[in-house]
Amino acid sequence: MTTVRRRLRAARADDAGFAPLTMMLGLGLLVIPVLLLVLTLPTWEERTVDARDAAANAARALATAGTWTSGVSAADQTVAEAATNDGITPAQIAASYRGALNPGATVTATVTVTIPAGTIPGIGAFGTLRYTASSTQHVDSYRSIP
User: Fold this and answer.
1) How far apart are CA 39 and CA 118, in angstroms?
2) What's the pTM?
3) Which terminal residue of the chain has fewer beta carbons within 10 Å of its beta carbon, N or C?
4) Residues 47-85: tens digit of each pLDDT
5) Cβ–Cβ contacts within 10 Å for residue 7, how many?
6) Rounded to whole angstroms, how far apart are CA atoms 106 and 104?
7) Rounded Cα gap, residues 14 and 24, in angstroms
8) HEC per residue, the chain
9) Distance CA 30, CA 131 (A)
């Protein structure tokens, strides 16, 4: 019986120094990565909303234009204004258009926004993701052809 008690006391004594190590591992492997993810999620959501809004506004500007050239110009200006207002640089956003301005046709605007994959406060962003949003608008069936 004495040998069993000695072994139990020895086992209890070995566990005494692991609390600081466990705390550091928990902090480093769980808390900090989750914190960085929580800090990055609002940026992802903001950029996806920006892309959807820019695509919808560009498609509407294109669908209501008199000619394709003036429509593309108006749509590009709409996308540039949206990017400027939301703090996106021109290098982080791209737009493309397809369709026709014939009465009853459709036009589609596709906007791609570059999103930082992660952000470390005080250091900066790392990695990039791309989010693409499209919007299709119907050209008025009764519009006059210029």
Assistant:
1) 8
2) 0.75
3) N
4) 999 999 999 999 999 999 999 999 999 999 999 999 999
5) 10
6) 7
7) 18
8) CHHHHHHHHHHHHHHHHCHHHHHHHHHHHHHHHHHHHHHHHHHHHHHHHHHHHHHHHHHHHHHCCCCHHHHHHHHHHHHHHHHHHCCCCHHHEEEEEEECCCCCCEEEEEEEEEEEEEEECCCEEEEEEEEEEEEEEECCCCCCCC
9) 28
Task: Evaluate whether 43 touches 115 at the Cβ level (below 8 Å).
Answer: yes
Q: Exposed, middle or buried, 47 (CB in 10 Å: 0-12/13-18/19+)?
A: buried
Tokens 């589609």, residue? Answer: 108
Supply 6's token pair: 């000695």
**Which residue type occupies 71?**
G
For the record, the structure tokens of 113 come out as 């926004």
